[in-house]
Amino acid sequence: MVTALLYLLVMAFVGAMLFLAASAVFGRSEELTPLPPGTTLTALPAVGVTGADVEALRFQQTLRGYKASEVDWALARLGREIDSLREQLATVEAESDDPGDAR
């Protein structure tokens, strides 16, 4: 019984070492290299966010996905940009519907 337990422990140890070696060699199958801890590439322009800016967003990866604070910041920033654009659109539409417009 002790021999079987010893074999099981050795197999678990060897399996863990093989897993760690494969993880170190092949990484996590990411397209981008991992960011150093505590840094981020998450950035958006102050005004005039474009589709290319959104596509270029990169978030720091954590154990179970992306860093929530960075995703929350990006979503809030995009929300403000959408609100601003809708406000500008409403202003332009209101000006074009104005009956006193001399155009």
TrEMBL record:
InterPro entries: DivIVA_domain. It comes from the Bacteria. This is DivIVA domain-containing protein. It comes from Rhodococcus wratislaviensis. The lineage of its organism: Bacteria, Bacillati, Actinomycetota, Actinomycetes, Mycobacteriales.
